[in-house]
Specification:
BirA Bifunctional Protein, domain 2, 3-stranded antiparallel sheet, elongated, alpha+beta, 337 residues, 20% strand, 10 strands, 2 domains, 7-stranded mixed sheet
Length: 337
């Protein structure tokens, strides 16, 4: 049995040294030292030894186990070091290669257009006001001279959450809220940019889009003030050669009301020909009832209001012909801006 133990030790050391990876090393360990391994088989035959032989063979078996385990541990450390060295070599960074620059983001064309709009009005002394996107029917319609039975409500397909709560269809509720938070008849000069929601979806309409509305209220405000303000704004935005046309229109919260068209000098059909007119926004003098409903006295103050879609402004500014490009997140499109 002593001879068997010495042979086991030699065989184990040879097999361990020959192991090329962790799996082969583990297989060798199980083969020699496992529960069903060769050392266990030898130890089971110790029952046939005399009482004097058992301690001697037991001590030798423990020595063999210790020596084999030490060889296995040394081989495991060697394989680990080898694997680390291979990893270091394979993951070496070539510092002579060009650096990988982090790509910069781009301002979305809608944000870019909104910034231009806001800058223009802020230069004229307007404040920027905000309001909730989930709005009460009262602020969205009723206090803007649109009671529940008003036929003009059919001009907008609205997303209602409850009979009294909806996704706002315009940013006009911000105007009403701004009127109410000021002292009655105090002057106001504000714009309200924000997201609005209507049941539309095609190349020129989206169920979610963006508006900027404006409101000015003070003593002696006239339609001429509205006309002058919008001319300054549109020429600031589109260039000094922009032609501007006001057309009579209807909005329930302004009276009189107008649509504003613009024409670029470059859009004329020929020398002296009729220009291509493009509707750009709606406007008008604040309806006396709107002032009254929101705590202002139409006998003491007057005002004007206007509203425009940011998507339409951006399409004209940047030559975009399909509204859906704004929302598809195509990097090839966005990085142009």
């Amino acid at each position: 049995m002593e001879k068997d133990l010495n042979e086991l030790k030699v065989q184990a050391e040879e097999k361990v040294h020959a192991a090329g990876d962790e799996k082969a090393l583990q297989d060798a360990k199980v083969f020699f030292l496992g529960k069903k391994g060769k050392l266990t088989a030898i130890l089971r035959s110790m029952k046939d030894l005399s009482a004097a032989e058992r301690p001697v063979i037991g001590a030798l078996a423990n020595t063999v186990r210790t020596d084999v385990e030490a060889v296995i541990a040394a081989k495991a450390a060697e394989l680990k070091a080898k694997r680390l060295e291979e990893r270091i070599q394979s993951e070496t960074v070539d510092i002579t290669l060009p650096a990988r620059h982090q790509k910069e983001g781009h301002i979305h064309p809608l944000d870019k257009a909104l910034r231009e709009i806001m800058k223009s009005f802020m230069r004229m002394g307007y404040s920027v006001e905000e309001g909730p996107e989930i709005e009460q029917d009262y602020y969205n319609f009723e206090c803007l001279n649109l009671p529940k039975d008003h036929p003009a409500r059919d001009m907008q397909d609205s997303f209602y959450i409850t009979p009294e709560i909806l996704l706002r269809t315009h940013t006009s509720p911000v105007q009403a809220r701004t009127l109410r938070k000021h002292e009655p008849n105090s002057p106001i000069r504000m714009i309200a940019p924000g997201k609005v929601f209507r049941w539309d979806n095609d190349a020129t309409h989206s169920p979610v889009f963006h508006q900027v509305e404006g409101l000015v209220v003070d003593k002696g405000i006239k339609f001429a003030d509205l006309k002058g303000t919008l001319e300054i704004f549109l020429k600031d935005l589109f260039g000094s050669d922009t032609k501007i046309r006001f057309r009579a229109s209807y909005f329930p919260f302004t009276e009189p009301s107008a649509e504003v068209d613009i024409s670029f000098a470059a859009r004329t059909h020929d020398e002296g020909g009729d220009p291509d007119w493009l509707e750009i926004l709606g406007c008008g003098m604040v309806h006396p009832m709107v002032l009254k409903l929101n705590g202002y006295d139409p006998e003491k103050v007057s005002g004007f209001a206007f509203g425009m879609g940011i998507e339409r402004i951006a399409m004209l500014l940047y030559g975009i012909d399909d509204l859906r490009n704004f929302y598809e997140n195509d990097v090839r499109f966005l990085k142009q801006f």
